[in-house]
Design a protein that fits this description.
Luciferase, domain 3, 9-stranded mixed β-sheet, globular, disordered C terminus, binds adenosine monophosphate
Amino acid sequence: MNPASWVERNARQRPDRPALAEGEQVHSTWAGWAATVAAVAGGLRTGFGLAPGDRVAIVMRNRPEYLETLFAVWHAGLVAVPVNARLHREELAYILGHSAAAVVLTDEEHADDVRSLVGEVASLRAAVVAPGEAWTRLVAAPAAPLATLRPLDPAWLFYTSGTTGRPKGATLTARNLLMASLSYFADIDPVSAQDAVLHAAPLSHGSGLYGLPHVARGAVSVVPRSGGVDGAEIAALLQRWPGTSFFAAPTMVKRLAGDAAVAAVARDHLKTIIYGGAPMYLADLEDALEVFGPRLAQIYGQGETPMTITALSKADHADRDDPRWRARMQSVGTPRTDVEVRVVDDEDRELPAGEPGEIVVRGDVVMAGYWDDPAATAETLRGGWLHTGDVGSFDADGYLTLRDRSKDLIISGGMNIYPREVEEALLTHPGVRAAAVVGRPDPEWGEAVVAFVVADGEAAPPPADLDRTCLDRIARYKRPKEYRFVDALPTNNYGKVVKRELRQRLRDEPGSAFLNG
Ligand code: AMP
C-alpha cells in the first residue's frame, strides 16, 4: 500500500476540492497536488537517476512543498528522510550521511547549510531548493507512474529527536505508516473530506505522521504561513478551515490555551487537538479543557512506533464525573488497537498492574529496526518487543501511567524517585510556572534530588513553601534537597525539556568535580 495512492484517489474523487493550503489561501486542489506529485516523482527518478529504495531527505520548514515532496518520494518508490529543520549543520551532515541520502530537498532558509553539504556528504548528489529553479524543473517533469510499495519496504526514516546521544533512524515501512493511519481512525478520530489538518508543529515529526490519515480521507492539509504557532494566525485559520485538527506538544497547547484570540473561536471551530510527546501536567490540562472543551486527545508514542502506543481519548477527557478522572488525566490512556503493550522487569518478565517497569510494545506499527544499526536494532527489538526506554505502570483498569524515561530515574539512598511525581507536586504551587527535577551526584545519597524552578511572577517562592507543597503530596524522601531558580528551562526543538543539560550543569560545578571520576 503506497500512501501516495491516496493523493491519486482523491484527485479522481474530488479533483477540484482544496487539498493543500498555505494559510487561508488554497495552494492546490487534489488534481493539482496529484499532478505535482507525479511530476516531481518523475523528475526525481529520471533527473537524478534514482532507483526504488534510494533515500531523499527533506530539510524544510513547514510549507506546501514539504508535503508535495513527501508524497512524490513515495509515488516514486523512494524512501523519505524528513529531518528536523532546526538542527545544527553538523547534525544535518550526520543524518544525511548516515541515511546515505542521494538528494535533499530544502528551502531558501536552509539552502546555504544544505548546499554546502553536497560534496561533503559522499552520497549526496544534489540539493534542490523549493521554491526555486530546480524545483520548477521538477514540477514540470514528465509524470512517473505510481510505484509499488510492499508492506515491508522502508518509506520513512524517522531520526529520533536526540534528547539522548546520536540520532538513530527508525525505519518505518509502508505497513507501519498504514497501521498508524488506520489506528488514528480507530482510536483518535474519524476524519472526513470536510475536515482539515493544521500543521503547526514540525512535519518531520508527529504532525507529519498525523497528516497521513487526513490525506487518506481527502481532508485539506493547511500549513500556517508563519510556519509555526502564532495565536492570531491559528484563530484565523480555525475560522477559515472548519473541522480543523492538529498535533501539538503540551507546551504549545498551554500557550494556545492562554491566547485570547484562539480561546474566542476554538469551541466553534476546532475539531481536535492531539497532544503528546512529553508530559502534560494536570493543572495545564485543566486550563486547556476549560478553554477548548473536550476536544483534546492525548497520545503516547515514539518515532519507533510512529505515535502509536496508547491514547487517552476525547471521551476519557470528557468523562469528568468518573471518580478516577484526575488519575486518568495524569495517565497516557489505554493501548492502541493495533499494538500489545506490556510493562516488564529487567529480564523482560511481565509485571502485574501497579508495578512500574519498562514499557514494551509489539505490533504491525512497530519499526522494522534502526537504519544501518543492527546492534541497536537487536537490543531495542529483543524478543520481538520494542523496548521504549520509558518506565510506567498499568492500573487495574488498563490505563498506563508514565513514571519517566528509565534514564531519568533518580536513585537516592537506595530509593527510586520518578522526577515526574516531584514535578507534579511542585506545579501545584501557584508560584511555580515550570519545574524540572534531576539527580545530582551526592557522596552520601548516591544522588540528590534537585529541582530547577521557573517562578510564576516576580519573586521566587520560598524554598520552605515548596518543601511544604511537596511534603503535602509526596513521600519525604522524594522532596528536593535543593531548589534552583532559573528564567527558563532548556528545551529541544520539539519543546521537550533537555534534562541532560541540567544534569551537566550540576556536574560542571566545582564542588561535584570529585564525583565525576
Ligand atoms: P520521540 O520519538 O522524539 O517522539 O520521543 C518519544 C518519547 O517522548 C517517548 O519515548 C516518551 O518518553 C515521550 N513521550 C511521548 N508521548 C508522551 C506523552 N503523552 N507523555 C509523556 N511523555 C511522552
